[in-house]
Amino acid sequence: MVGSPLFQDTFTTLGANPTQMSWADAKPALTTGAVDGQENPISVFDVARIDQVGQEHLTLWHYMADPLVFAVSNRVWSQFKPEDQALLKQAAIDAGQWEIEKSRGELEATLAAIKERGVQVVELTPEQHAAFVEATRSVYDKWTDRIGEELVEQAQEAVANR
Fold it and tell me: Measured between alpha carbons, how far is 25 from 135 in angstroms, rounded to an integer?
């Protein structure tokens, strides 16, 4: 999995032993069985052909929406004129919106392609999803205190509106 402490906490809370590694190391580790599974967006599962390294099961539990983060250092940002800053901000907003629409618009076709390759895709029932939410409640509590209620609410809204 990626090295996000939030991801680490989530999977540890669920009883997993998450291992951070580069993508270059992950595929061989999956092939040899050094690791049992991986966490990635569906688009990455598809493009990286994770099914070719022994991943024959995919569970959709909709626990998060991958954020798109556009960042620039304050030192660099302050060198731009205000009108250029406004253009760059709008370009980032437009790019983010495009990516959301693209990934959501292609979801069914991507899942169909994955299933055609023999991967068993399981989507949790509302009751099963609720069980995951409840099991990770302590992670919400911990991270809400750290990053703020407003950001957590925005993330929950993004997941709900998938």
Answer: 30
Each residue of 106-149: pLDDT tens digit?
999 999 999 999 999 999 999 999 999 899 999 989 999 898 99
Question: Residue 81 corresponds to which tokens in the numbers above?
Answer: 């004129």
DSSP string, 103-145: HHHTHHHHHHHHHHTTPEEEE--HHHHHHHHHHTHHHHHHHHH
Both tokens of 54, joined, read 């022994």
Max Cα-Cα span within the chain: 53
Question: Cα–Cα distance between 9 and 2 in angstroms, integer?
Answer: 12
Whole-number Å distance between alpha carbons of 2 and 109: 26
Distance between CA atoms of 127 and 12, rounded to whole angstroms?
A: 21
Cβ burial, residue 38 (10 Å; 0-12/13-18/19+)? buried
The two tokens of residue 62 are: 């909709």
